[in-house]
Amino acid sequence: MASMWRYADGIAGGDALDWPAVSLGEGGTPLVEAKVGRREVALKLEYVSPTGSFKDRGAVVLVALARLLGAERLVADSSGNAGTSIAAYAARAGMEAEIFVPASASEKKLLQVRAHGAKVTAIQGTREETALAAIERVTESGAFYASHVYNPYFLEGIKTYAFELFEELGEAPATVVLPAGNGTLVLGVHRGFRELTDAGIIGQTPRIVAVQARTCAPLASAFESGLSRAEVGPTGRTVAEGIAIAEPARSDEILAAVEDSGGSFVTVADDEIDEARGVLARQGFWVEPTGAVAYAAILRLEREGRLGEGLVSAPLCGSGLKTTV
Ligand SMILES: Cc1ncc(COP(=O)(O)O)c(C=O)c1O
What is the pTM of this model? Predict the structure, then answer.
């Protein structure tokens, strides 16, 4: 079966979840070799997921869990893609959804959320203020809080990315390069590879290189300073709206996951992201700016000879059809 549910046995609660009633065929995304300088990298095309981003892997598990618990209404907050995903899976499961987004979220993502029948509540404020508004609505309404940031079941879905990558390559890559905002991808991929390591299926967890936007890099700064959690710093604007997270709620876990993998953090500037997006497009890959962040880091690390030995892999996380820029 070319979907993430071939690993249902490995997903916590997987046997209790009525996932066929919620699934849109997520997972099973293509893995394509591409040249970066003299190196081949394995790109996993998460942007061909049902709603156009990797968030579908986590959203399907979260919505199936809400259904199991008898929820009829969902509330979520998101910079765009997670909200789109929750809205689509809520529609598939016959549930109502209200998605809180910062007013600055991409118009195309909001169009998609509304088209799935969800209510959009736009908050004039930061990503953090948007989350607080959603939590307030959950408290007053009793709806299920379908939070991709706090609910660990979201990570249970994301970890299938690691299982698939391993199965397709026939080995674990030496390095995975991942964008990091709230860190669900980093945490989910780390969880997946850690489980494979603990089960003796692979010898070593790949090195995770987590990538942040230069103007909004609380995790990278904390890692560099040897801190165990991120400090609240200034939020600069970036074209990579999906990772513009000034206060990642699980910063301690994200930092520990990267450390455990023997990995590191890299920051990339907006012009590097734009350049990477263009380089990808000229090879046929069409991603939104946040979707080019990991590739931008790979381009720089290769130029600087810092990519390390062994197989390198990265996801292209979000579709170019989602944005107008
Ligand atoms: C396309 C894309 N890539 C990467 C990320 C980063 O994911 P996370 O916030 O889980 O680190 C997001 C988050 O919205 C995204 O939309």
Answer: 0.96
